């Protein structure tokens, strides 16, 4: 299969200007254009996009590439029935997400989130004598040891942390001392000071962390979510934070995005809220371009695609 007309959907502007990706692909083979309208879409064989729109099905595209790793908003069955291939951008965010999680843990350990709030109020305050700690010797459980989870584990190990994790097939992983199967979730998180979620949103992981799991966490534990909002039962998390049965949380993803103004999470001193930005990186478009180029080559050679979902 040869792609002769490739579209870059305007929705990618959520993460970078469409023109920079178009320009990075100008010598990739097909004619590359930025598309927005249905008429422009109809003139394409394939599409690189951030959003999903029903018009994509009507355009009868041969291939759609999502610039996101998460593609749970795409209609897999409908795409498969029509014969449209779907690929995602999994595997390109390990360093940026890993560093973000390291940053969250350092902020909590060193009290930097509190100091930042103090700065906004021009308040000069030394932290309580027993509040600050170092990450060396602290424990982290990483739930999901794919690209993101392994990158988190590597950085935590470098900071001197004791790292455990959960993987569907519990095989040895570099920088992880113990790998638990999913059925041992409660045991795995029970002794961890930090718990980081790095799993895709699937039927298995929706609501993975609910009231019973939160009860298993230490009252001085911190929960970090760089997976998807639906992995946590958000109301149960709010209850745990309000009752002080959890020390704090760093959340990059939420059940509803943007996080609604009325959410109590905004006003919690022990919560770090970021705007689904853990993967932010000025090199993002270049990494997407590498994936797109490789799959253009594979399509032309009738080979299986990298990161094929459908």
Automatic annotation (TrEMBL):
<dbReference type="InterPro" id="IPR006139">
    <property type="entry name" value="D-isomer_2_OHA_DH_cat_dom"/>
</dbReference>
<keyword id="KW-0560">Oxidoreductase</keyword>
<feature type="domain" description="D-isomer specific 2-hydroxyacid dehydrogenase NAD-binding">
    <location>
        <begin position="103"/>
        <end position="278"/>
    </location>
</feature>
<dbReference type="InterPro" id="IPR006140">
    <property type="entry name" value="D-isomer_DH_NAD-bd"/>
</dbReference>
<keyword id="KW-0520">NAD</keyword>
<dbReference type="InterPro" id="IPR054891">
    <property type="entry name" value="Dhydh_Halo"/>
</dbReference>
<comment type="similarity">
    <text>Belongs to the D-isomer specific 2-hydroxyacid dehydrogenase family.</text>
</comment>
<dbReference type="Pfam" id="PF00389">
    <property type="entry name" value="2-Hacid_dh"/>
</dbReference>
<dbReference type="InterPro" id="IPR036291">
    <property type="entry name" value="NAD(P)-bd_dom_sf"/>
</dbReference>
<dbReference type="GO" id="GO:0016616">
    <property type="term" value="F:oxidoreductase activity, acting on the CH-OH group of donors, NAD or NADP as acceptor"/>
</dbReference>
<dbReference type="GO" id="GO:0051287">
    <property type="term" value="F:NAD binding"/>
</dbReference>
<feature type="domain" description="D-isomer specific 2-hydroxyacid dehydrogenase catalytic">
    <location>
        <begin position="36"/>
        <end position="309"/>
    </location>
</feature>
<protein>
    <submittedName>
        <fullName>2-D-hydroxyacid dehydrogenase</fullName>
    </submittedName>
</protein>
<dbReference type="Pfam" id="PF02826">
    <property type="entry name" value="2-Hacid_dh_C"/>
</dbReference>
<dbReference type="InterPro" id="IPR029753">
    <property type="entry name" value="D-isomer_DH_CS"/>
</dbReference>
């Amino acid at each position: 299969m040869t792609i002769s007309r490739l579209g870059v959907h305007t929705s990618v502007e959520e993460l970078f200007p469409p023109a920079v990706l178009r320009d990075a692909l100008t010598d990739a083979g097909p004619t590359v254009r930025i598309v927005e309208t249905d008429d422009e879409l109809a003139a394409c064989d394939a599409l690189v996009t951030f959003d999903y729109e029903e018009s994509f099905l009507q355009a009868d595209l041969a291939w759609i590439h999502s610039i996101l790793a998460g593609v749970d908003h795409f209609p897999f069955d409908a795409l498969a029935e029509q014969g449209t291939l779907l690929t995602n951008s999994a595997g390109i965010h390990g360093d940026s997400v890993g560093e973000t999680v390291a940053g969250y843990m350092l902020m909590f350990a060193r009290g930097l989130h509190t100091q930042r709030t103090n700065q906004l109020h021009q308040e000069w305050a030394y932290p309580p004598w027993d509040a600050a700690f170092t990450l060396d010797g602290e424990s982290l459980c990483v739930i999901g040891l794919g690209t993101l989870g392994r990158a988190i584990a590597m950085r935590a190990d470098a900071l001197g942390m004791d790292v455990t994790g959960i993987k569907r097939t519990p095989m040895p992983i570099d920088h992880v001392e113990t790998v638990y199967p999913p059925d041992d979730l409660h045991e795995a998180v029970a002794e961890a000071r930090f718990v980081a979620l790095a799993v895709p949103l699937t039927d298995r992981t929706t609501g993975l962390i609910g009231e019973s799991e939160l009860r298993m966490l230490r009252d001085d534990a911190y929960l970090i979510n760089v997976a998807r909002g639906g992995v946590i039962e958000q109301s149960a998390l709010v209850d745990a934070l309000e009752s002080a049965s959890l020390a704090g949380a760093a959340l990059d993803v939420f059940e509803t995005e943007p996080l609604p103004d009325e959410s109590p999470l905004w006003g919690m001193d022990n919560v770090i809220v970021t705007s689904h930005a853990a993967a932010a990186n000025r090199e993002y478009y270049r990494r997407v371009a590498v994936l797109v180029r490789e799959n253009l080559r594979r399509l032309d050679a009738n080979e299986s695609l990298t990161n094929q979902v459908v």
